[in-house]
Amino acid sequence: MDSIGHNIPSVHGLLPAEISRRILSLAAVAVLPAALTAVLALAAPAQASPAHPAQAGQPAQAGQAASAASAGQVSIVIDSMTPQTARPGSTVTVAGTVTNGTGQTKAGLAVQLWTSPARFATRDEMDGYLSQGTGASLQPTGNLFSPAGRLTPGATVKWHASFQVDTVGMTQFGVYPVSAQVEDSAGDVLGLDETLLPFWPGQQAAGLERPLNIAWVWPLVDQPHHQVCSALTSNDLTTSLAPGGRLSTLLGVGRAHPGADLTWVVDPALLNDVNTMTKPYQVASGSGCSPAPGQPASKAAKTWLDALRGISAGQPTVITPYANVDVSALVHSGLTADITSAYGSGYAVADSVLHGSFGPSIAVPAGGTADLSVLTNLATAQHIGAVVLDSNEMPPANPAVFEPDDAITSIRVPSGLTMTVLLADHVLTGVLAAGDTSSGVLPASTQFAVSQRFLAETAMIAAEAPDSERSIVVAPPEDWSPSAALASDLLSETTGTPWLAPTALGSLAGAPDSERGIARRPPPANQDSPGELSASYLSTVAEAGTVLGVYRDLLDPVSSSYIQGLELALTATESAAWRGPAAAQGLKLARKLSAFMIGEESQIHIIAAQQVAMGGSSGLIPVSIQNDSHHAVRVRLNATVVDLPGRTSQLSIGHFQSVITVQPQQAPLVRLPVSSAPNVPTAIQLTLTTADGKPLPLRLTSLTVKSTRYGRAILFLIGAAIGVLVLTSVFRGVRRRMRADPQVGPEDADPPGSVVTGTSSARHPTEAPDDLADARRWADDA
Question: What whole-number distance in Å separates Cα of residue 448 and Cα of residue 383?
Fold first, then answer.
C-alpha cells in the first residue's frame, strides 16, 4: 500500500535541516528540548483557529492550532485509546476532554475522529505528522460525539468516539495517524489533537523475521548527599525513598516486571547515602562537625536497600563511578586520576553495601555523550569494554540513504582497543523525559501520550525493515522521575508487545555483529559534552583536593575510614549532577569541605613566650605544640633566625627533634638549643608543616631572644674569687713554714692528746684579721 505522505519535507520541527532521520540509530534530533517539544505536541491540546477552517478531507494544521491555543480558544485533548495496539477486527475507542478556554458559552460542539487506511512509511513521516501536521491524507471515521448542553467559559466536558479498523482499511503492520478535532455548529474547527495507532496483523502477516531486541537502562542515580563527618547535606532522600517517591517508584516498578530484563545502573554514592540512613544519622548544614540534628533510622531506606540487594543478586547491575562523576569534564581537565579513584571507590562501596562483587562492565556516561578522548580513558585506564552512547553521537555516515541498522556498533579508540558501543535511541530518550514528574503524578493526557508514542516509535522501527535483525536501547535521563503508572505501562508494553523481545544490555554487548556493517561517523576527537562541569568549577574542586592532601599527610596514625569519608565527599563534588544551574550547589560542597579541613588544621597551635631573656650566649628555649583537635597529628617544627637588615645574626639553632606526634588535647614541650646569642634582641620565627614539609595554614609565631651577659660576668667573678682564695691559702702556708723556729725539733713538740699548762717558749704566727678581705676587694673591683 502506498504511504500517506507525498512530497513531505525531510526536515521538520523535530529534525535538523541537514539530516533525515529514517532509521533507529539516526534519531536526528538536534537537541533534547526539540524532542520534548514533539512529545508535548502530542500530549498537549492543539487548537485550530476558526478563521482557518480545515480543508475538505484534511484536519486543521498544527501551526493553526498553536496560534489558536495562544488566543485562548476551545481545546481538545486525547487522554486514552483502547486498545492501544489495534488488531484485525478491533474497535478502537478514543476518549478525552474538551475545554472552553474562551470567555463565551459554546453550544452545538461536536468531536470527529480522523484517520487513514495508509500507514506511515518512515519515522520521519510520523514525526512530521506530529510536529507539523503534515504528510497525512486523513478522512473522517467513526461516530460523531456531541457534548450535551452548552459549554460555559472555563468548563470541561469528557468525550469519546469509536471506529472499526476493518472499515477504515488498516491491514498492514505499522503505525497509522489518528486525529480528533472539535467543531462548532457551523463546521469550523476549533481545536484538534493527534495521536498514533500501531496495527499488528499477526506474526505471519506482519512479515517480521524476529522481534526487536529491546534493552532498558534503568537508572538508580541521585544527587550526592554525602559530606564531611558522615552527615547528609539534606533529608530529601526520605521523600524519594518513601512509597510514591522517585526512587521507590523506580525500584518497585522495575522489581514488579522481571520479564523486562532491565539493566540496573546504580550510583554507589546513592548506596552510601541510603546505607547511612539505615542507622541513626545526622543532617548538617554548617561547615564543621558540630552536633547536627539527629534523625532516626529510616525504615524506608532499609526496605529499599534490602529490595535492591535482592535484585542485584539476580539481575544485571552496572555500577557507575562514585557519585556518577562527570567523566567527560575530568578527562578534558586532565583529572583522569580522579576517574580511576571514583571507579575504584564505587566498586568498593557497591561490594560493601550490596554484598556482591562488582567491577568494570559497561560505562553509561552522563547524558550519553563522550568524545574519543573519553572513550580512550574508559577503555585503557578503566578497562571497560562497552559503552552506552546517545544515538546522535554516532549517526550513519550517509543519512540520505535508508539502511536498516542496529543499536549495536563498535569503535576503535586511538589506543588501539576496540569498544562495543550501544546506541540509545535519542528520540525515545526525549519521549521518556516528557513523562518526567517531580510530584509523582502526571496528567492523564501526558501519560497516554508518552506510552502511546513509545509503542508507535518501536513499531515503526520494526516495520521499517521487518526482514532485518535489529536491536534497540532505551535510556531515560539519569534523574528520570516517572509516575508509577507510566513506568508500569512502559514495562508492560515492553513485555507484552509482539514486536519486542526484552533483553539485558550485556547480552547486546556480547552479541555477534549482525547489522553493524553500516558506516557511521565517529565521535569527535575532543569536544565538551553539553553542560559539562567547567574548568573554573573543577579548579575549585582541585583546590579542595590539595587541602585534603595536606590534611591527610598531617594525620598520624591515618584513620582509613575517616580519610575515606573525606575522599568520598571530595569525589561527590565532581558529580555530573552539578552540571548547569546545579553548579552553585556543588561549589558550596567543595568550599565547605575545604573549610572543614582548614578548620581542623587551625586547631594546632605553637605556644611560646614572646620574649626570652638569656643570662649567657647559649641555652634552651621551651616551645609547646598544642593539639586541640580530635585526631593525633604528626608535624614538623621549623625554627628560623631572622637576620637584621644589613647584617647576619650570630645566633644559631642546634639540632632538636623537629618531627613530633601530638596526641589530641596534648601540648608536648620542645626545647630549642640556641648558641652565640648576641646582646641585641634577635627574632626567631616558628612554623609548622607536615612531616614531609607541606605548609599548614597557621599564623606565623615569633619570639625574641636577648642575651644580658650577666651570667658570664657572675661566673668570671666567682672564678676570680676562688682563685684569690686559693692563692691566699698557699701564701699563708708558705709564711707559716718560713716563720717556724728552727731550734725546736719534733722531740720538743707536745705529744698528741697531751694538755699544755703554764707558758711555752713556742712562737705562733700572728693571724691576719681577715684572710678573705683582699679576695672580696678584688671581686668587687672586677
Answer: 42
Neighbours of 725 (CB within 10 A): 15
Packed helices 560-572 and 583-601: angle between N→C axes, nearest 10 degrees: 150
C-beta of residue 709 within 8 angstroms of C-beta of residue 572: no
| Cis preceding linkage at 296, omega within 30 | no
Measured CA distances, 418 to 202, 219, 293, 373, 412 (Å): 40, 26, 51, 14, 4
Write the burial class of residue 188 (CB in 10 Å: 0-12 exposed, 13-18 middle, 19+ buried).
middle
pLDDT at 739: 63
- Helix axes 773-781 and 710-739, enclosed angle (nearest 10): 150
C-alpha triplet 198, 201, 203: angle, nearest 5°: 110
Residue 501 is inside which H or E element, if any? strand 500-502
DSSP run (H or E) holding 484: helix 484-496
Instruction: State the cell numbers at 775.
Output: 679576695
Q: What is the pLDDT of residue 628?
A: 93
Q: Coil, helix or strand for 514?
A: coil
Largest CA distance in the chain: 173
How far apart (Å, rounded) are the C-alpha atoms in residues 313 and 674? 68
Q: What is the pLDDT of residues 395-441, one digit of tens each?
A: 988 877 777 778 999 999 998 999 999 999 999 999 999 998 876 67
SS3 string, 625-666, reads: EEECCCCCEEEEEEEEEECCCCCCCCCEECCCCCEEEECCCE
d(CA 269, CA 233): 13
Q: Which residue has the higher pLDDT, 679 or 305?
A: 305
At residue 290 the predicted structure's pLDDT band, cuts being 50, 70 and 90, is low
Closest-CA residue to 394 (of 377, 415, 417, 413): 413
In the structure, what pLDDT confidence band is assigned to residue 253 with cuts at 50, 70 and 90? Answer: very high
Q: How many C-beta neighbours within 10 Å does residue 697 have?
A: 11
Side by side, which strands form the sheet with 659-662?
Answer: 611-614, 701-707, 682-690, 633-642, 659-662
d(Cα 321, Cα 331) in Å, to the nearest integer? 14
260-264, 437-441, 623-627: least confidently modelled range: 437-441
Give the whole-angstrom CA distance, residue 37 versus residue 28: 14
Alpha carbons within 13 A on the beta-carbon side of 619: 17
Average pLDDT over residues 125-141: 84
Q: Above 90 in pLDDT, residue 33?
A: no
Task: Specify whether the backbone of 7 is left (phi greater than 0), alpha (psi in -120 to 50) or beta.
Answer: left
